[in-house]
What we know:
The complex is a heterotrimer. Chain A is mostly helical.
Amino acid sequence: MSQIARRCLPLIAAMALFAPSQATAQPAQAANTCLTCHSTLADTRLATPAKLFSGTDVHRERGFACADCHGGDPAAAEKARAHDAAKGYKGAPRGQAQITACARCHSDADLMRRYAPKQRVDQATEYATSVHGKQLAAGHTNVATCASCHGPHGIRLVSDAKSPVFPTNVAATCAACHADPRHMAEYKLADGTPLPTTQFADYKKSVHYAALTKGNDLSAPTCNDCHGNHGATPPGVGAVSNVCGTCHAVFATKFQSSVHAQIFDKGCVECHSNHAVLKPSDAMLGSTGHAVCATCHSGADDKGAVAADTMHGQFEQLEAGIRRSGALIGRVKNAGIEVSDQELALREASTKLTLARTEMHGFVPASVTPIIADGAKIVESVDAAGEKGAAELRFRRRGLAISLGAILLLVVALGLKVRQIDRRSHS
Amino acid sequence: MVKGVVDWLDERLDLSDLKHFIAEKGVPIHTQEVWYYLGGMTMFLFGVQVFTGILLLLYYRPSSAEAYESVQFIVTQVKFGWLIRNVHSWSANLLIALAFAHFFSVFFLKSYRKPRELTWLTGILLLFLMLGFGFSGYLLPWNELSFFATKVGTGSAGAVPVVGHFMLRLLRSGDDVTGATLSRFYGLHVAILPAITTALVAGHLLLVQRQGMSVPPGIERAQKAGKLGPLAQMKFFPNYILRDVLAWYVVLAIVAALAAFYPWELGTKADPFAVVPPGIRPEWYFLAVFYTLKLIPSHIMGFEGEQLGVVAFGIVAIVLVLVPFLDRRASRGERSPVFTVLAALGLVYLIVFTIIGHYAK
Amino acid sequence: MNEDPIPTRAAAAFDRRRFLDALLAVGFVSTAVAIAYPVSQFLIPPASGEPATASASAGKAAALKPNSAHIFKFGGRPGIVVRTTDGDVRAFSAVCTHLDCTVQYKPDTTQLWCACHNGTYDLGGNVVSGPPPRALETFVVNLRGEPGDEEIVVSRA
């Protein structure tokens, strides 16, 4: 063997040892000239990935390196050899190639079990069923792929608060494309109208967004909770109340059994909207003005209008009763009567009101009436107790007035006595 | 039966001096004698306060977590708790009103003149103590009104120059009004102030009993000029005492009427982090001073307005204490119109500014 | 007959004095009673013991059977005391953290459940399913009194 060959042998041996295997995707170790070279480049497009990957990155922390996704030779010192296609270099994978690149590991159950046993391995399959996946298959490359949401470098765990797919960040990540009219211009709905881009703005008005961001309730829904994670598709006809029902189970059950379930294909969305889900109020119920029911129902001969008005009236009455009772109890309490039992009872009445509002989603006044009646009975008993309290206050006042009379009588008697004693002293 | 007890004690303690004193003690009768009763009425109400206060003590809890609830407990759960509490609250206000009436009657009738300077001294200190009782006691129910009124009141203490911040911290037991303030005010209200007051009341009473009732200077002058003969005396016991007791029952009737027709409310529990309710002000007996301080512009000739106001009131307090020594003419028995005018101005100022302070926004 | 008028007048005056004295005595005694009666009643400790700020009674321990619960009052809000199947006594605030409805105990699932929107909590107070955003406030439970006749005393943690 020549001198050069002998010297290169160890190097070749090392390269052979450390060359990435295409078959079993073992993490590359030690040598990673990709980073050392790319981090010094002036072009930010080429330098940023290196910087991000050197920071917090879930793949790097588990021993994976650039070549595991991009291919090429991590030990090579110069570009041509490092970017050698023979060594599997594929550049930055985009579109379907990206899906394939990620799925190489993430759809491999045996492999994933070694790193995250509970993690799912069907994301790529799911993706294929999604709108994004179907559009990609049809040749539209402007859709989201893995890296669009998870990031290509500096990938964080979903549970990491800085991850773009952490619950509080999901909506903004989706909105990066879906709220951009220019990006969405080429996509149309089934009937030819352009895809809306107001979803994020609408969602930000919703109670779900408020619960998520201000209420610290990470279980509150964001885009993926209703549309799906990787198989993202808007819920179709008949599916909406199921989707809402995953959390709002009671309402969904009542609604499914109601007359509206046959009529509304948009289910819950018909009255509550899909993205701008606002805090509901009794004002939504009724057959006049801004009430939601009034969109279809009006007039005295419309059964639906009558039902809406009846239930609306019942809710108003109970709520007014609870308020009035609360005021009476408050006044009496302030004056010094024990009313904690009544306060508790009023809470029960409020519970009845909440239950009635739930029952309303069956749209049958007859099933709401007994609940309202229970609430009204409670309010009546609280009112009675409040009146008793007020009577007790009047009784106290009368008692004091009587003792006042007694004292005044004594004062008069004392006055007379003083006069008598004075007369005696003088005489 | 009473005579039996007295005789039993006399055998053991020799009450002959006391008996002689009571038998001989007289109270002069003249046109202004009605003012004599105010002091006794004030003392009676102080006794009512001590009595009802001790009763409240059995159930009250001086911590910010429990004070409001304990007062609520007293008023709603304890039998007649509402009565004891109402009497205590109303009698407090009446006590201060009567103390001021007594103060002004003494001021106008110049009873402070020689030889009664010490009586005046103890009396004026007692007046300040009563105001201290009112201020410290007002916080104890720990409701919204009292919390913020205390905040404003102790804040004014901070306006005193040099020692202001120290005084504020001393009063508030810290920089802010907190549960620590409540504890401190409680200690003041049930221990420190009562101890000092008892000593001063004892002194005040002893002096009055020893020196007898002061006769208005006008009447004394008329006597000296020969226009009036020696004043008739009524016997202290039983004539004057019976009239005193009559006055006390009248006061009791007024307290009962107020408690019956204007019961004291619980209010809402204090929340230190809540916004100050608009129009917050202290109780009526501090309104005049409070409103005056509010009216003073924030800066006068380079000095902080509030500081000047507080210093001015401090000077007024010191002058009041020294009145017997400043009013030489009254001590000599001469007419002293300057001090009469000052008293009148003081009374008018207090009434007018209390009313304005009540109706001002 | 010549009647001496003076004894009659003196007698009348004497009667008037006696009457006035009697009236005064009645007056003093009645006002004294009007004061003493409320004061003596005031001194009697009320049935509810003390203000229920830091702790409250949740009934007798013997009355709470295993796998059952009942609602009690704690500072103006409902609480729920549960005896688990193992005999352990636990207490929570019964105010659902979703929309303030009162929760109840379901013996078949041994969970706390809110009827309003199907919120479910486990016996640690933690949310198992449904809309509630936070766990139920947990209270400290102590037993007080004679063995066999203990009272459940609930206090804030």
